[in-house]
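All the exercises in this workshop are built on plain-text protein records. Instead of coordinates, the fold is spelled out as a row of discrete tokens. Once this layout is familiar, the rest of the handout is easier to follow. The record below serves as our worked example for the rest of this section.
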Amino acid sequence: MTDYVKKYIKTIRLNSFHPLCETNIGQNAIANFNFPPFIDASCRREPDFENSFPSITALCRQEKFAPQLFPNDIVVYTTVKGKWSADFDHYRIIAILEVIERKDTHLQAKSWYTSKGLKVPSNCMVDDNPPHSFLETAGRYENQKDIKNFLTFPAEKQAVIGERIVKLWDKEYLEKSKKWGTFIITKPIYINLTNPPILTDQDIYNIFKKKINTRTPKKLTPNEFKEVAKFADINFIQP
């Protein structure tokens, strides 16, 4: 178990996301592009776990999450509930992140990353940072029937449809970034994108004494965080 010592924490939050491995389209992306299975599923990774300094923006949940984060905050990310290569529904603990920088615009965030010689994150909405192609995502279909139908098309048709979908998808993200420009830069305390630990409903109940909705970012107490972190083999110590 790894010790994580932090004297001052402003706020601790629990959030969830949809991983790339959620659909057959995403599983094809994993196989074809050698992506880790538990990165974000969209054309703009939100959050972007693939950067050495993972980033969080308001492309997802708009004003309800990223604009409320500040340095010394902690964010715990899990998947939404799913079977995730098991025969029962559960969550996976993907990352525990410490907020280190808050930028007012995506352009400011780009400058921060480039000044350190780092790749600009996928969720940074700047002109020279294109989205992932449709076939690098989990798709944007809401039911299995549509996904299966898409996968029956020849590659040329998939490419045309995918390009059209991503163009609209990215346009929506651009509008959100203009309205809510907050860009959060973090450092990972823990991250596992390939075989993350399982968190069951019973584990959730044992920690919180009730069911919780991970799709609504939840504030955690230090004691709740300590119990969640144990599943990621992190020993939280608050002097």
Summary: The longest strand covers residues 91-103. The beta strands are 2-5, 12-17, 55-57, 74-79, 91-103, 183-191, 198-199, 218-220, 234-237. The mean pLDDT is 95.
